[in-house]
């Protein structure tokens, strides 16, 4: 089976979507299928990689979003897809690429849309007060135009369940060998914190929708309570300079590392922190948080996001912008270190990439076996997601 995947908003150097695409593609290849990924870039390219063939088509920057490019030339993309003759089409962008569902139907190709983002959440942050109605209309069109919708958490599936649209629930995974408590490094800790300091970690993109200021507020709250805490921020983004200025003005001990190119350095940092903070309110899965758990470090997450579902008992959810995170961090620190690290690792072990690959392949096979007109699909289904995987 030739699975052609098309994605926009793929970060040029790292990011959850990039990680997911790489691991799923490698899994498809290992299972004996042919994986082809089509993404935007600065210039055209075509190469063979561990995740299969990767085709890059020229796509323009989106201003203000930190380097993301999009595929806007529909004719060129459609011609590329026709030349590839896919058996299945997997689409990872519910906005600018939704038209591919209609294209696939006209060409009798089963299609699957992967919901990597929450329209509810995005419209809540940036859109009008009527965002929920807008999301319902757009999600209804997405469900009608594709043979399958895959969501990675129940939280992400809710906006489809609300309109009675069927989804497959397939969690993403984590590399349990790369991210391990064994990468804990005393030298890494000593680089950023004194022996008696609490080492906090914010690992993620510094952009408005990720709410990185919540991590600074948590650090400030802890220090006001007399906790010797320092914060390390691994990640780049449009808010970096503003955050640096704010941390300096408040005299907060924050170390901004920018984008780390060495994946093992990232893994060692995640394994060496005491607590990580993942404050984004619209995360539909949270790969970075899961990688941190696999490294043996508990995580405090936003109660508004899907992450409480992913971290389970290995972390805590906080509401609001600051005090809730302080309380949650103190709660985690009060637990015996060995117990909290073992709990983090145990939760992450529920999410191997092998299970994700199997779930995605099952959804692909089903999209070809039970194709029905979309209107009938929406009428006969209650919107309850079919679970293909383990969410713990």
What would you say about this model in short?
It contains 16 helices and 15 strands.
Provide key terms for this protein:
392 residues, alpha/beta, Rossmann fold, 18% strand
Mean pLDDT: 90
Poorly predicted ranges (pLDDT <50, ≥5 residues)? 372-384
Which CATH architecture of the largest domain would you pick? 3-Layer(aba) Sandwich
Structural class of the helix and strand makeup?
alpha/beta
This entry's quaternary arrangement is single chain
CATH superfamily of the largest domain: Glycogen Phosphorylase B
How many structural domains in the coordinates? 2
Fraction of residues in H or I helices: 40-55%
**What's the CATH C level of the largest domain?**
Alpha Beta
Shape: globular
Measure the end-to-end span.
Answer: 30 Å
| Count of helical regions | 16
Extended strand count: 15
Biggest sheet features: 9 strands, mixed
- Placed side by side, the strands forming the largest sheet appear as 3-4-2-1-5-6-7-8-15
Return the CATH topology of the largest domain: Rossmann fold
What is the radius of gyration computed over CA atoms, rounded to a whole number of angstroms? Answer: 21 Å
Strand content: 15-25%
